[in-house]
Amino acid sequence: FWCIAMARSGKAIEAYQEAPDGAGSFATIAEALMDARDGAMLERLCAAHRKAHADDAELPYWESQAAALRGDHATAVARLAPHVVRYLADERMAAVVEGRWIRSLVGAKRFDEALAAAKASTARDEDPWYEAVVCAGRGDPDATRAVLRRIVETGAELTALCAACHADDIVGPALRSPAFAKLLTEFPAPGADPPPAPSAPGGGQAR
Does the pTM exceed 0.85? Predict the structure, then answer.
């Protein structure tokens, strides 16, 4: 879309104002700014959209994203908190809001709340990935390992899991920190030597 090209060239507000359907184009432009990790411009776009469409039910999510991109996780949490229950009850919104909510709680160092939200996510989809995110963000290598092993035991392919870990904004830096040096040997970066198969109690390879 032409509006995406404008957004990527630093003219997101102009693209929004010139779009025949500004409200309809808002999410498209916002996504482009998310991809560019331009929190300051996304903040400006949200402010413009709030003036024109303050009743947009999805706007608080985008405002939270803008704060998170700027590294202001406390504000991201505060913006999302009044709406998170409603968002998570909506299957379409839950798919995108859940990660933002948990990651912002981690960024704000509200780890107990983040872990509770991550466990609720696991209960919904049987995927404990966000529990690993929280444990890594908390700086707990033992708890992170336990969750990652659970993911492997559910049938996840180890190479793909390692790639996901190292690409993650929270798990990746944790794995590369000194405190996680031992865990890094078990979940190495893509291209590194594969880890040895863990031993099962009593000898032999663990499944």
Answer: yes
